[in-house]
Amino acid sequence: MVKHIILWTLKDSLSAEEKETVKAGIKAGLEGLAGQIPGLLEIRVQTGRLPSSNADLMLDSTFVDAAALAGYSTHPLHVAVADGKVRPYTAQRVCLDFEV
């Protein structure tokens, strides 16, 4: 199995209220991919955070293998969420992929 973890920081230009709306949209969009992409076993978005955090939200997803992760990255449903709900609002992205 392969884990795909992403941490995002939202743009500073967003108000606190806008950030909450964006986080909810990202969570709904990405978690809505469950059961729709081959090889995607689990997908969760964490939007709550402690004040000691330096990221705004986290994606924690599990794939059957590296090939499934590669397919996810270009799958039209994922690309639509990334282009419509994530990329326009994020300032920074950090990714860690690893085998478990």
From TrEMBL:
Residue span(s) of domain Stress-response A/B barrel: 2-98
Name of a matching Pfam family: Dabb
InterPro entries: Dabb, Dimeric_a/b-barrel
SMART domains in UniProt: Dabb (SM00886)
Cleavable signal peptide: none
Domain of life, source organism: Bacteria
Gene3D superfamilies: 3.30.70.100
Entries under SUPFAM superfamilies matching the protein: Dimeric alpha+beta barrel (SSF54909)
Protein name per the record: Stress protein
Lineage of the organism: Bacteria, Bacillati, Bacillota, Clostridia, Eubacteriales
